Amino acid sequence: MNAPMLAHTLSTPRHTTRYWECGPVDGPLMIFLHGWPQIGLMWRAQMETFAAEGWWCVAPDMRGYGGSSAPTTSESYALNEIVDDMVELHDHLGARPAIWVGHDWGSPVAGALAAHHAARSRGVVLVSVSYFPQGFALPSFLPLVDRELYPIDRYPNGQWDYFRFYQTHFSQTVGDFDADIRATLASVFRSGNSAFVGKVSPTASVTLNGGRYGTAHRAPPTTPDPELWPSADFDALVEAFLVHGFQSANAWYLNDAANIAYAGTAPDGGRLRQPLLFVNGDWDPICDITRNRLGEPMHSGCHDLSVTNLPAGHWLPLERKTELVEAIRSWLQTEALL
Q1: Based on CB atoms within 10 Å of each CB, which residue in 119, 154, 157, 278 is the most buried?
Q2: SS3 label, residue 287
Q3: What domain range is 37 assigned to?
Q4: Do strands 98-103 and 29-33 pair parallel, antiparallel, or not at all (unpaired)?
Q5: Inter-residue contact 23 to 3 (CB < 8 Å)
Q6: What is the pTM for the complete model shown?
Q7: What is the bridge-based pairing of β-strands 272-281 and 56-60?
Q8: How many domains does the chain have?
Q9: In a domain, 233, yes or no
Q10: How far apart are CA 138 and CA 205, in angstroms?
Q11: Edge-to-edge, what's the strand order for the sheet holding 56-60?
Q12: Mind listing the pLDDT tens digit for each residue in 188-244?
């Protein structure tokens, strides 16, 4: 029988975090950090499996998501603020050094926490999004864009054009996503496809198209993929976004300068000494590191780096639920972290 996923709330003077937990509280601690546009329940498959193996698994709703606080100012979503949320949560959980697992925007949070608070992390797993010691921000990505695939005259921001568009057309992106939240989320969460490997990502043409959904300014009717999100969890995701909308989720993209400055204060230039596993999605049109230079900062900024590739798109924890568990478990064994 799967361990039950229980919801709890931690409230401090500066923030409220809802988090999900399962497994024995006296087991080794594994903390899962989601990204855009998700909630802690996205880690259900991995948490239930590791909990059954004796791990205490915890997954917060990150700042601006689900049952956690959603401040109204964009600067509230800088990485230093979000890392401080995780420090508070970790203290609340007893502060035993943990394995931190991040996906999408959760990966830069896990990486920044490991850099700034090394004693809290005995190992790091980053899924889909690699580590950038100089800061998770557009200026860090653009020099690494494959200019043969993305000529600078046509695609100045490469596959990261969507990131730039969120910054330059923030109100529009929020309005477009909020116009039909269920359809938006169903359209965002689609499995990767090997047929698009080596092709220009649709995210490179967001500005050219006038937004993700073009002149329609709303997602087309889309049926959710039950292979990714269990229906009850997808309904919970939709309900969460009906409360907050995309305002707070998209505000994570508005803090390049602050994130670069924060990275600059990390000891040892942000070099990570903990064992780090990066799980790459081979079909990820934005973040794949195998056909470009995107992984170079991580390779130079990690003392003990392992890389595993899985046949998946960007939503790897949902597309390859079992395979991700197996990859993490194998790495834990190799690094003697069990």
Answers
A1: 278
A2: coil
A3: 6-334
A4: parallel
A5: yes
A6: 0.98
A7: unpaired
A8: 1
A9: yes
A10: 16
A11: 6-11, 16-22, 56-60, 29-33, 98-103, 121-127, 272-281, 302-310
A12: 999 999 999 999 999 999 999 999 999 999 999 999 999 999 999 999 999 999 999
